[in-house]
Amino acid sequence: MTAPATEIDRAIDRSGLRPVGAPTEVVVARDVAEVQETVRRAAAAGTPLITRGAGSGLAGGAVAGEGAIVLDLSRLTRIRAIDPVDGTAEVEAGVITADLDAAARAHGLMYAPDPGSVGISTVGGNIATNAGGLRGAKYGVTRDAVLSVDVVLADGSLVRLGRPTIKGVTGYDLAGLVVGSEGTLGIVVAARVRLLPAPQRVATASAFFATLEDAARAVAAIAVSGARPAVLEILDGATLGAIDAASGTALRAQGEALLLAQTDGFGAAEEMAVVLAAVAPTATHHEWTEDAERAADLLSARRQALPALERIGRPLIEDIAVPRSRLAEAISGIRLIADRHGVPIFVFGHAGDGNLHPIIVVEPGEGDLPETAVRAADDIFALALSLGGTVTAEHGVGRLKREWARRELGEDAVRLHDEIKRVFDPLGILNPGSGY
Amino acid sequence: MTAPATEIDRAIDRSGLRPVGAPTEVVVARDVAEVQETVRRAAAAGTPLITRGAGSGLAGGAVAGEGAIVLDLSRLTRIRAIDPVDGTAEVEAGVITADLDAAARAHGLMYAPDPGSVGISTVGGNIATNAGGLRGAKYGVTRDAVLSVDVVLADGSLVRLGRPTIKGVTGYDLAGLVVGSEGTLGIVVAARVRLLPAPQRVATASAFFATLEDAARAVAAIAVSGARPAVLEILDGATLGAIDAASGTALRAQGEALLLAQTDGFGAAEEMAVVLAAVAPTATHHEWTEDAERAADLLSARRQALPALERIGRPLIEDIAVPRSRLAEAISGIRLIADRHGVPIFVFGHAGDGNLHPIIVVEPGEGDLPETAVRAADDIFALALSLGGTVTAEHGVGRLKREWARRELGEDAVRLHDEIKRVFDPLGILNPGSGY
Ligand SMILES: Cc1cc2nc3c(=O)[nH]c(=O)nc-3n(C[C@H](O)[C@H](O)[C@H](O)COP(=O)(O)OP(=O)(O)OC[C@H]3O[C@@H](n4cnc5c(N)ncnc54)[C@H](O)[C@@H]3O)c2cc1C
Ligand SMILES: Cc1cc2nc3c(=O)[nH]c(=O)nc-3n(C[C@H](O)[C@H](O)[C@H](O)COP(=O)(O)OP(=O)(O)OC[C@H]3O[C@@H](n4cnc5c(N)ncnc54)[C@H](O)[C@@H]3O)c2cc1C
Fold first, then answer.
1. Does residue A434 lie within any of the structural domains?
2. DSSP-assigned beta bridge partners for residue B146
3. B403 touches chain A (CB under 8 A)
4. Exposure of A68 by Cβ count < 10 A (0-12 exposed, 13-18 middle, 19+ buried)?
5. What count of other Cβ atoms lies within 10 Å of the Cβ of residue A44?
6. Strand A257-264 with B49-52, pairing
7. pLDDT in tens, A76-105
8. Which domain-ending residue is among A169, A197, A225?
9. Rounded distance, CA A327 to CA B372, Å?
10. CATH of the domain at B204
11. Which atom of ligand 1 lies closest to the CA of A114?
12. Do B222 and B275 form a contact (C-beta atoms < 8 A)?
C-alpha cells in the first residue's frame, strides 16, 4: 500500500530533526511479502530505505529525506501467539508495546520492557533501538526479552535469527546483533519474545531531597542496600517546576529532587523497607504505598515530565549513562554546562541504570538549533565519556549522535561495525546516514 | 611461557573427544601482551590457535590436534576491580567463576551465572560458551551478565567491545556477538561484568514424582503459577539410582523423578509456597527449607549427578532445550530412543529453561563411540528440532555438534555466520573446525 509521499508525519520522528526534501515514496506494508517486495525494489534501484515503526524515536533514526523510500511497518499488528507455559509470545513488528503487555497480562504474565513511549511505540521499533524503560533497573532492556527475530535482509530474503527457546547457544547471537541496529542491518518483521510472570505485589515510593546530589547519593545507597528496585527514577527541581506549571501540582515546593522507586515480587513491601532505609538519611520526606491508584499518582510525575517540557519550548533530549557511582558528578557537571552556555537544562532519567536524560529546552520553532544548545549538548556528551559513560543509553545513535558514537567506539570497533554492515547490506540501502 | 606440548591435559576438554595428533606448542599466557604476541605469531604462520580456559567444556571446543598452538588463559586470574555501587566487576579471563562470585559476596553482591562447573571453569570460558547454570531460570545466562569484553583479534590487536555502563546502545552489540562465539571470533582476555545484590533469603525444595512426565507437568504448572524460581532442576529415576549407588542415598525409592526448586529474594518463602501449590497435585511427596545446610543437602543430588554417571561408564553428554510446554514429550521421546537403540540414557537438566541433559552412558574406555550411541544422539538432536527446540542450550557446538547446528541454523543464517567469521578472522586461524 502506498501512502502520499508528501505525508510529512511519516518522514519524521520525535527528535525534532527535519529532513532535507521529501521521500519519493511511502509504503505502508500490509504483510511480510510487501516488505520483501519493497526491499527488492529498493535494492534493484539502489534507493535508500528508511524503516519506521511509530516514529516515536528521539535520535532521528526514522527521518527520511529526498530520494528515500519510507517503509512503514505500523500495520503489522498481529500478536500471532502467546504461550503461557513457554513464557513466550510471537508478534509482528508493528504491535504497540503496551498492547503486547496487555495481552500478556491476560495470562498473568508481562512484557517487561516499558519505554516511556510504551503506549505509542512498536515492538519492532523497540527491537531496532534496543529500547529501555522504567522497569529496566530490574528487568533489563529489549535485548533481554528477544529470543529470535524474523528479518528481511537487504536482498529481500527472509531469515529467522536467534533461538526458539529461552536458552540456546547454537551459533553466534545474530538476533542480539540485530537488536539495537537501528534499521541498518535488516528489517525486523516479527519476533519471538520472552514474557515473565507479572509481579504479584508492587510497592511504590517517592522521596524528595534538598539537592539533586543528595538524591544521587541515595541512588548509590540503594545500590548497596541489597534491594533491587524494578523502577528507580530521578527528576530534578527544574523538571518538577515544569510539571507543576503544566499540571497544577506543587512538587517543587517539596524539594529540589525527586526519586521514584518501585519494588515488586512476593517480598515487595519488605524490599521497599530496605530501599527507604537507604534513602532516609538524605531524603527530606518520603512516602510509599501498595495501593495501585496512589502508586499511579506518584509515578505520574515521571510520565508528565517530557510533555511538560514540550510546553515550555523545543526540547533537545539527551540520553547519557554513567556508572552509578558517578551520577552525582554527572549531575553537577550538567549544571555547570547549563551555566556556561546560558541554556536551561532539565534533568530526569532512569537513575537505577545510571541513565540521565538532560533536556535542553530552546525557543519553540523549526529550523536549526541555536549554537549554544548544540555546544551544550557536545559538552554533555564529552562529560559522559569523561566519566566512563556512554553517549546513548537507550535512544540510539540515529542521525543525531553519529560523530559522538564514533568517538565513543574508537577506530578499531568502528572498522568492525563497517565490515559487519557490509555483510548485511553491501549496497548500503538500509537507513544510510543513521546509526553508529 | 611455553609448556611441554606433549601435555595431553592441555589439548583436551571434558567432552571425551580425543584429538588427532598433538599440538606443536602450548602457551600459558602470563599477560595480555603474551596473548597478542602468540596470536601474531599464529597469524604470520597461518597456524590454528586453540584458546582454552579450564578445559571443562563438554563440546570438544578446546580440543587441539596436530599442528595447533594451544593458548591457555588460566593464569590470567586477576580480579581488577569490584565496584559495589556500579554493580560491576572487571576480571581477567582466567578467573575461576566461583572466585568471582566469592569476591562479589564479600560486598553483598553475587555473580549470577553458575554453571555446574562453577568451581573449575573460567569466566573467559563461560563467556566463550555463553554458559548457563542452575540459577539461569531467574537470572539468565552469561550473556546477560557481560557488559564489555577486551578481545585480542586475529591480527593481534586489542579492542574493547561493548558498553561501560549497565545500559548502552552505542553501535552494534559486538560484545554480545563475542559471547558464545566459542573462541572463533577473538580471544577474550578480560571482561566487565554485572553483579547483582545477593538474595537476602533463599528457600529450597525437593519434590518426588511417580513418573518423569508428572514432573514435567509440574514444571508447566510452576511456569503459570506466578512464581519465578531461581533454580528448577529435574532428575530422572535412572540418574537417582546412579547417585544412590555412588553415595549410598536412597533417592530412587522415593520416586521416578525429582524436582529441585529454589526461590530467592525478600519473599522467598511466600514464593516457594506458590511453587509447592503448583507441584502438589502431581508430586508424591515434597519438602522445603530455609536452612542453608539442609538446602545444600537437597541440592547435592544435582551436583552429584554427572560424577555418579562417570563411575558407571563413559558419558556422552547432550544438551538440548525445548519449549517448556514440550518437556513431557521430549522426555518420553528420549525414553523411546533409549529403547530403540538399546542404550541407557539418563536425563537431568535445567527444567525451568526447558534444558535437558540426556546422558548416554557407554562402556568405559577410549576410542570411537559405539555406533548405537552415536545414532541415539542423532535421534535426540532430531527430536529436539522436531519439538521446536535447539541442539545446544548452553554447552556450545564445539567440534561435536557442527552438523546438527548447521541443520538448526539453516543455510541463510550459516552464510551470515561464515561472512561474520571472515570479518573477524580472515585467515581462519581461530579455533578452526569448531563452533556453529
Ligand atoms: C514520550 C517518549 C518517551 C520515551 N521514552 C523512552 C524510554 O523510556 N526508553 C527508550 O528506550 N526510548 C524512549 N523513547 C524513544 C522511542 O519511543 C523508542 O526509541 C522506541 O523504541 C521507538 O519505537 P518506534 O516504533 O517509534 O520506532 P521509530 O521511531 O519508528 O524508529 C526508531 C528506529 O528504529 C528503526 N526501526 C523501526 N522499526 C523497525 C523495524 N521493524 N525493523 C528495523 N528497523 C526499525 C527506524 O529506522 C529508526 O532508526 C521515548 C519517546 C517518547 C516520544
Ligand atoms: C561437571 C560439569 C558441569 C558443567 N555444568 C555446566 C552448566 O551447568 N552450564 C554450562 O553452560 N556448562 C556447564 N559445563 C560445561 C563447561 O564447564 C562450560 O562450557 C564452561 O563455560 C567452560 O569454561 P572453561 O573455562 O572450562 O572453557 P574451556 O573448556 O577451556 O573452553 C570452552 C570453549 O571456549 C573457548 N574459550 C575458552 N576460553 C576462552 C577465551 N578466554 N577467549 C576465547 N575463547 C575461549 C575454547 O576455545 C572452547 O571453544 C559443565 C562442565 C562440567 C565438567
1. no
2. B193
3. no
4. buried
5. 11
6. unpaired
7. 999 999 999 999 999 999 999 999 999 999
8. A197
9. 61
10. 3.30.70.2190
11. 8
12. yes
Task: Scan residues 113-142 of A and list those with Cβ closer than 8 Å to B.
Answer: 129-130, 132, 136, 140-141
**What is the B361 CA–ligand 2 centroid distance (Å)?**
21
- Going by pLDDT thresholds of 50, 70 and 90, the confidence category of residue B303 is confident
**Which residues form the domain of B7?**
2-72
B158 and B192 together in one domain: yes
Pocket test for ligand 2, best of B129, B158, B353, B431 (most atoms within 8 A of CB): B129
Dist CA A304 CA A243 (whole Å): 7
Q: Is the CB of A115 under 6 A from ligand 1?
A: yes
Contact state of B265 with A271 under an 8 Å Cβ cutoff? yes
Q: Could you tell me the three cell numbers for B351?
A: 527444567
Nearest CA in chain A to B223: A85
Question: Measured from the CA of B13, which atom of ligand 2 is nearest?
Answer: 29
pLDDT tens figures, B127-143: 999 999 999 999 999 99
* B182-B187-B190-B192 Cα dihedral, nearest 10 degrees: -50
Q: How many residues does chain A have?
A: 436
Number of domains within chain A: 4
Assess whether A323 and A340 both reside in one domain. Answer: yes
B124 and B53 in one domain? no
- Classify residue A304: in a domain, yes or no: no
Q: How far is CA B338 from CA A51, A97, B215, B374, in A?
A: 50, 45, 19, 12
Nearest-Å Rg of the Cα atoms of chain A is 21
Q: Residue B360: helix, strand or coil by DSSP?
A: strand
pLDDT digits (tens, 9 = 90+) for B46-101: 999 999 999 999 999 999 999 999 999 999 999 999 999 999 999 999 999 999 99
Classified as helix, coil or strand, A145 is helix
Q: Is the pLDDT of residue A255 over 50?
A: yes
B411-424 and A411-424 helices, crossing angle to 10°: 150
Residue corresponding to grid cell 547519593: A217
- For residue range A25-47, list pLDDT tens digits in order: 999 999 999 999 999 999 999 99
- Distance of alpha carbon B202 from alpha carbon B179, whole angstroms: 29
Q: Is A113 in the pocket of ligand 1 (CB under 6 A)?
A: no
CATH of the domain at B136: 3.30.465.10
The atom number, within ligand 2, closest to the CA of B14 reads: 53
User: Is A55 close to ligand 1, i.e. is its CB under 6 Å away?
Assistant: yes
Cβ of residue A391 closer than 8 Å to a chain B Cβ: yes
In order of A335, B183, B234, B263, B270, the CA distances from B277 in angstroms are 54, 44, 18, 14, 11
Among the bound ligands, name the one nearest to the CA of residue B185. 2
A54 and A97 share a domain? no
How many distinct helices (H) and strands (E) make up chain A?
14, 19
Q: Is residue B168 within 8 angstroms of chain A, CB to CB?
A: yes
User: Which B residues 72-91 touch A at CB under 8 Å?
Assistant: 83-88
Same structural domain for residues B182 and B215?
no
* CA separation for the pair B191, B175 (Å, rounded): 9
C-alpha count within 13 angstroms, C-beta hemisphere, residue A150: 18
Asked if A152 and A207 sit in the same domain, the reply is no
CB contact under 8 A, A197 and B225: yes
Q: Closest ligand 1 atom to the C-alpha of A58? A: 15
Chain B's closest residue to A226, CA to CA, is B197
Shared domain for B216 and B242, answered yes or no, is yes
In a domain, A38, yes or no: yes
* H-helix or E-strand spanning residue A89: strand A88-92
CA angle A427, A428, A432 (to 5 degrees): 160
In this structure, what C-alpha cell is assigned to residue A266? 512476593
Query: Is B306 inside any structural domain?
Result: no
Residues B193 and B203 in one domain: no
A356 lines ligand 1 (CB under 6 A): no
Rounded to whole angstroms, the Cα distance separating A193 from B425 reads 32
Domain stop point among A233, A265, A299 = A299
